[in-house]
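Saturday, quiet lab. Running sequence design on the C-alpha cells for the scaffold JK sent over.
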C-alpha cells in the first residue's frame, strides 16, 4: 500500500506526465503545420516518452495496491512564435517537471517510503 499523501502525489504526477505529452503533441502539431517535419517527429517522440512515464507511474500505483484516479488534462498552448520558442518552452517545462520529481522524492523520504 501507499500512504494517502504518496498516492495523491503520484496521481498528480500521472496528470503532469500526460499534460506534458499533450503539450509536446501540440508542439508537434505546430511544427508539422510549419513544415518542420524533423522537429515535429522529435517532439512527437517526446510526447510518447511522457505517455510512457505516465504509464510507469500508473502501473506502479496499481502494483502497490493503491488507486489510480485520473484528472482533467489542461488544454495545451496551440500557438507558438517559432521553432526556437517551442524549444525554449520545452526546456522551461522540463525544468518544472524535474522539480516536481524532486518534490516526489522528498515526499517519499518524509513518508519513509523507500520503494
Ligand atoms: Fe516525464
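Result came back. Writing it out in full:
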Amino acid at each position: 500500500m501507499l500512504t494517502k499523501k504518496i498516492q495523491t502525489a503520484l496521481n498528480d504526477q500521472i496528470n503532469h506526465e500526460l499534460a506534458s505529452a499533450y503539450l509536446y503533441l501540440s508542439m508537434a502539431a505546430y511544427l508539422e503545420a510549419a513544415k518542420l517535419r524533423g522537429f515535429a517527429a522529435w517532439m512527437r517522440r517526446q510526447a510518447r516518452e511522457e505517455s510512457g512515464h505516465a504509464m510507469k507511474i500508473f502501473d506502479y500505483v496499481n502494483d502497490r495496491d493503491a488507486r489510480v484516479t485520473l484528472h482533467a488534462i489542461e488544454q495545451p498552448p496551440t500557438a507558438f512564435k517559432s521553432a526556437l520558442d517551442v524549444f525554449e518552452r520545452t526546456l522551461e517545462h522540463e525544468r518544472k517537471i524535474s522539480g516536481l520529481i524532486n518534490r516526489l522524492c522528498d515526499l517519499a523520504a518524509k513518508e519513509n517510503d523507500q520503494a
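Notes for JK: Residues 17, 20, 50, 53, 97 surround fe (ii) ion (CB under 6 Å). The chain has a mean pLDDT of 97. Ask whether to fix the surface positions before the next round.
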